Amino acid sequence: MLKGKTVLLGVSGGIAAYKIPNLASMLVKNHANVHVLMTEHAANFITATTFESLTGHKCIIDTFDRNFEFQVEHVSLAKQADVLLVAPATANVIGKMAHGICDDMLTTTSLACQCPKLLTPAMNTRMYESPILQDNLEICRRYGMTVIPPAAGHLACGDSGPGKMPEAEELFDYICQAIQYPKDLMGKRILVTAGPTREKLDPVRFITNHSTGKMGYAIAKAAARRGAMVTLISGPVSLEPPRFATVIQVESAREMFEAVTSLAAEQDAVIKAAAVADYRPAAVFSEKVKKSGGDMSIPLEQTDDILSWLGEHRREGQFLCGFSMETENLLENSRRKLEKKHIDMIVANNLKVEGAGFGTDTNVVTLITAGAEETLEKMSKDAVAHKILDRIF
Q: What is the SS3 string spanning 73-110?
């Protein structure tokens, strides 16, 4: 995932330093080249040997350490770095980075770095909420650094509130967001719909489908990783929302239709990966349900056709992509939908092939446009997501 990328981890003197070995291990397992810089105070919480064992590199603390091959070490590391994460970032280190003070290896290397810089404040709530600390964080943001918001909870000092360092998984996510992919979609606005919808039959029962939302979520995540401004409209799923996308939760097909129509005009591309429940109970069924105890012969009416509406109301330069799931005549039926709904591309999902369809981590699809068809081999839904974005942009 991060092969060929060099990550600098700057560890300063806070109790949250104990979380960083787990992060270093995650980065190494994902093939990143990891170097760790520690302040002298950080060495009171965790040893350099821990990081050296995990990364295979000397953990540097002393700016004037002579025990390495001769080179200007802080400049050398700064040149190699694809990203610098300072975690935990104490109030002391944040103040130094905000004002260009270089009195240890971490702050000296930081000033020499021209790569993305991420800061993770971790401290007592009163310190974190101090106007001075907040001013210093704002200065760091103004210089292009990303400040990762601390979590709120019970702190080591016994207080409760903001100031707790996020878990390693979240920090890993921020690193991937910064360096995993080139930001070739920067400035693009993409709307993605994902997951199923539910149409209530009564207070207990509803009509839905087997969609898990995995494909739509993969597209939203991939687009955000590549720098796009992503809005994800999601039906009810059990997936973690993509961290760097705006997520709107809906339940019914009507709610999804209203969310899409209110936002579509602002987007450069709309990708409808949601599997909408195509029918909802007609208004006349309620009394029959009460009398019959839920007789499934109740009348149904068709839901709003989101793709058709998009095709009829597209703005100039907008790209529209839909999904098609067919059990027979996959390509013919999908191309018919492409033409009927006046969209630019349809992703035909082969439900009869092993490793494709609902609930899987892989997919087998054919990308259909007005003049071409491209069938992709079985691959992860993340990989399919990038292929789709490549064809759109």
A: HHHHHHHHCCEEEEEEECHHHHHHHHHCCCCCHHHHHH
Element (H, E) at 255: helix 253-263
In order of 6, 37, 40, the CA distances from 324 in angstroms are: 41, 51, 59
Q: Which domains does the chain have, with CATH numbers?
A: 6-179 (3.40.50.1950), 189-392 (3.40.50.10300)
Q: Whole-model pTM?
A: 0.89
Count of CB atoms within 10 A of residue 1's CB? 13
d(CA 224, CA 155): 32
User: Which amino acid type is present at position 310?
Assistant: L
Instruction: Give yes or no for a contact between 89 and 17, defined as CB atoms under 8 angstroms apart.
Output: no
Helix (H) or strand (E) holding 233, with range, is strand 229-234
182-211 mean pLDDT: 93
The Cβ of residue 306 has, within 10 Å, a number of other Cβ atoms equal to: 23
User: To the nearest 10°, the Cα dihedral for 180, 186, 191, 192?
Assistant: -10
Which residues are catalytically annotated? 157
Q: Dig out the tokens for 202 from the structure.
A: 């009564």
- Calculate mean pLDDT across residues 170-193: 97
Place of tokens 């064809």: 391
Within 8 A by CB and 6+ apart from 212, the residues are: 195, 237, 238, 239, 358, 359
* For the chain, percent of residues with pLDDT exceeding 70: 93
Phi and psi at residue 155, to the nearest 5°: -95, 165
Residue 21, CA atoms < 13 Å, CB-side half-sphere: 13
